[in-house]
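Exercise 7. Given the components listed, write out the predicted structure of the assembled complex. Treat all entries as one system.
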Amino acid sequence: MFKDKAIKGVFVGMASTSIFIMLLIFVFLFKEAFPFIKHPGLSSLLDMKWVPVSFQQERFGLLPLASGTCLITMLAMLFAVPVSFFSSIYIAEVARPMEREILKPFIELLASIPSVVLGFFGLIVLAPLIKSFFGLQSGLNAISGSILLALMATPTIISVSEDAINSVPSSYKNASLALGASRVQTIFKVVVPAALPGIIAAVMLGAGRVIGETMAVLMVTGNAARITANPLESVRTMTATIAAEMGEVPFGSTHYQALFWVGIVLLVMTFSLNVFSQKILKKYGAFK
Amino acid sequence: MTHNLTEKLVISGLRFATYAIVIVIGYILFDIIWHGLPVLDWRFLTEMPRRGGAEGGIFPAIVGTIYLIAGTIIIALPFGVGSAIYLSEYASRNRLTETIRLAIITLAGVPSIVFGLFGLGLFVLYFNFGPSILAGSITLACMVLPTIIVTSEEALRAVPKSFREGSLALGTTKWQAIRTNVLPYSFGGIITGAILGIGRAAGETAPILLTVAAFFLPRLPKSIFDQVMALPYHLYILATQHPDTSKVLPLQYGTALVLLILVLGLSLGAIITRSHFRRKYRW
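Answer.
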């Protein structure tokens, strides 16, 4: 009896590692970022410029980075959401069973292509294409980055919203068809509205993935830290800033601490998106 | 009549969106295979890089990636399977279980670069491992843990309840029932999860950027406290940091193809394993 209790204890301990890791992540991010509060103070994170290395005045404003992340995320979702929405409907409602069995794993394939490979593809193939299409001096800009990110968000959005569409009870569909509604009417007026919370959660999960993505944006957005809404300009995201600058910064310096603040903001953003979308999925997701 | 036409138009619109994605994926794969294949030969895979990576092979990067994913899975698998056993066999609906589930979901959504920051702060600096295989593997293990937990739990839950009851009715303890009547039948699913985790760890760049990866290191590591080169980081360096990126373009394509073969091969392996065990055990 005692042995059985001990074994259960071991498993409880192992299962608690996730909580432990999550706590450690928060603790260590704050620990490294903390001295920044005393000097130069949290208000300097609200500066309009990010100039971490300078002979006169170093400036650690997060706004240009946050605006870069926002611009890229919005553009990426603009590309990804309609396509993923339509194709999740196609896979769940229109495709024949055989077709579905091939389409699903193929689109999941996209999810397993490493982001550095997609970034490389973007750099070599997509950026020159964008450059000549818009007649720009460089193809390394917000629009190239967001097209790549849209590709990365697509599999997530499709598979979660396809689940949501599949979980709509077939009695809903049958009732609509029996009343004389056509197939398309049934899909858009009955199935999609019923699956809408799940589709919204899918979009939020996709956005979470886009915000946190590092390598592809680092390689193709051009990395100029400026506030702009022009998709043809080069921008710099929060993730790319950490990846590009952390390697060269002296440990413990103000710049080092500022980069940890960028990480904290990033973590809080993705954390809230995730928790919120899980809440939606839990509340409306499954029909039972 | 017009009604029928709109119906057809909408359906073909949906089909168009889906196959547009398929074509884009196909084109990406084709481009990398087409340009990468000519570079790929035995010497490229087994030689040391020379002149800062501008010539020679990618042997140390392949070895480095294998060390990293081996370290990752050795650390992550026991904890992942242990967590899954707790969640599927022992957990009751209480605060602890809910907190564990929330932590797993949150962990799955943490951006990879934040794992890099965390690994840098905790393992590289606080534990003083330095940039090393050890620091990188633990960081990657934290990242793939949710994948392994979720797939293993699914595998355990797929084993029918009667298997456990049969064993318990014969007077075994709960652990004996799990060990003899549940774990052997969920083996396939657990392996699938492990392979998926390895695939994700092999392709990630951001977490190893700050915790282990070396720019150019034409020798093999001697201990777990050594730095290594790794395929994804090597590709990143060749594509963006190299002084003459256009000259080393074939090497970039070659590296990208090797990485792609490794990662997609692992995903394919996971799919085959899953369907093999699904056919083997049917209840």
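Discussion: The longest helix of chain B spans residues 2-36. Strands of chain B lie at 49-50, 55-56.
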